[in-house]
């Protein structure tokens, strides 16, 4: 009976694996020649020996199954970089796993979280229209309820709309783009003139102004994050590309104290109450733990604390303590007017020091977690150097002895 049950269980698992794999097609180097010109493909590039690739594999099959069940036009595939190097070269894959989308000969790289929800959102965003039309009040309200940040073009066809669509071609990997007529928007949205580009986020909206905000694409890239949010290392890196500074409350990771809670609420309050003053210069948020930041500042950071990061230069402004709102406002004003000098940076010396710090931190972690492996790792280079030194001395000694023997032989002759 037990054997029959195990056999049935194995059959069910094999059936499920087979049905899941049916939604994901294995692609080889002939893919670019055989695909349809209008096809949209979401592709994972992997290698058999990559552990991260194997971890992503069940998620990838779930994505294939869900997109198929939705009737999505997006096809899901995967390609083994070790057996199909030509396709990896075509997509300029530099590391595994890599996730890309091909849509009408345009390639889009995915650099977000390796979760089913995040990848599905990417596939839905890029696989659909570049600019989605909101033709009714109901559609506008539905979009507002489903997106923390959305960019909207309002008005008739114009040069601004062309720039908006051009920006969407590149930035669709990050955010959604919509268009609508003026009567779709709530009456509370005041627009001095049309056409206009507006970003809706944080329960408010901001209109793009070319004289003040500069290039439209750069402005969209700067404004594509909520003004206050939870920030992880990936989000922080992406924020750095916007050119804004990041005001970060560093909190205790597990059992947050009242002090950590106070830091978070204070930063959130300032981001909300002083949006007009600071939104063009800062992002605000919080991060649990300080491991990532410790690598940047090359030292331990006490928790909770507040830090302002200039990710374009790897510089930072560290607050010694945060007593109240006015102190935070003075600190931010000092960062903006230059009265507070940044620490760190990306000079050659700072880069070298950061490499040494990372190496020391890695060795410390290895010795604390795997002490035997740590000692072996450190002792092997010294053993190798000692062996080379011994061989050199041995050869030198033998050469010296041979020379002495030759001299003795010539003297006897």
Automatic annotation (TrEMBL):
Which spans are transmembrane here?
372-392
Q: What class of enzyme is it?
A: isomerase
Domain Thioredoxin: start-end pairs: 14-128
Which cellular compartments is it found in? Endoplasmic reticulum membrane
Q: What keyword terms does UniProt attach to this protein?
A: Disulfide bond, Endoplasmic reticulum, Glycoprotein, Isomerase, Membrane, Redox-active center, Signal, Transmembrane, Transmembrane helix
**Where does the signal peptide begin and end?**
1-22
Membrane topology classification = Single-pass membrane protein
Q: Which Pfam families did the record assign?
A: Thioredoxin (PF00085), Thioredoxin_6 (PF13848)
Q: Could you tell me what this protein does?
A: Probable disulfide isomerase, which participates in the folding of proteins containing disulfide bonds. May act as a dithiol oxidase. Acts as a regulator of endoplasmic reticulum-mitochondria contact sites via its ability to regulate redox signals.
**What PANTHER family does the record tag this protein with?**
PROTEIN DISULFIDE-ISOMERASE TMX3
How is this protein named in the record?
protein disulfide-isomerase
């Amino acid at each position: 009976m037990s054997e029959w049950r195990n056999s049935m269980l194995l059959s069910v698992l094999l059936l499920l694996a087979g049905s899941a794999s049916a939604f994901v097609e294995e692609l080889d180097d002939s893919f670019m020649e055989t695909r349809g010109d209008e096809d949209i493909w979401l592709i994972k590039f992997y290698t058999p020996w990559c552990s991260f690739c194997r971890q992503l594999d069940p998620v990838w099959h779930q994505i294939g199954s869900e997109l198929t069940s939705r009737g999505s036009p997006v096809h899901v595939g995967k390609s083994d970089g070790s057996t199909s190097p030509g396709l990896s070269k075509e997509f300029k894959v530099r590391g595994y796993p890599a996730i890309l989308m091909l849509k009408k000969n345009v390639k889009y790289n995915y650099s977000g979280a390796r979760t089913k929800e995040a990848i599905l959102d990417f596939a839905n965003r890029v696989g659909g229209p570049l600019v989605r039309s909101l033709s009714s009040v109901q559609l506008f309200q539905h979009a507002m309820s489903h997106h923390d940040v959305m960019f909207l073009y309002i008005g008739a066809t114009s040069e601004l709309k062309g720039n908006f669509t051009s920006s969407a071609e590149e930035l669709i990997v990050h955010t959604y783009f919509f268009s609508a007529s003026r009567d779709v928007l709530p009456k509370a949205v005041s627009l001095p003139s049309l056409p206009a580009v507006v970003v809706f986020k944080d329960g408010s909206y901001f209109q793009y102004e070319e004289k003040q905000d500069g290039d439209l694409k750069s402005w969209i890239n700067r404004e594509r994050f909520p003004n206050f949010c939870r920030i992880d290392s990936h989000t922080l890196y992406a924020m750095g590309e916007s050119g804004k500074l990041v005001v970060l409350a560093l909190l205790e990771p597990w059992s947050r104290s009242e002090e950590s809670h106070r830091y978070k609420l204070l930063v959130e309050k300032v981001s909300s109450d002083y949006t007009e003053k600071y939104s063009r210069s800062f992002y605000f948020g919080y991060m649990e733990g300080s491991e990532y930041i410790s690598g940047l500042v090359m030292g331990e950071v006490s928790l909770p604390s507040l830090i302002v990061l200039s990710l374009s230069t790897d510089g930072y402004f560290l607050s010694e303590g945060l007593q109240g709102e006015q102190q935070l406002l003075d600190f931010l004003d000092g960062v903006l007017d230059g009265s507070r000098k940044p620490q760190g940076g990306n000079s050659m010396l700072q880069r070298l020091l950061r490499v040494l710090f990372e190496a020391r931190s890695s060795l410390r972690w290895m010795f604390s977690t795997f002490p035997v492996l740590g000692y072996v790792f450190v002792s092997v280079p010294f053993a190798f150097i000692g062996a080379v030194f011994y061989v050199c001395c041995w050869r030198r000694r033998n050469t010296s002895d041979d020379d002495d023997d030759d001299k003795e032989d010539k003297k006897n002759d």
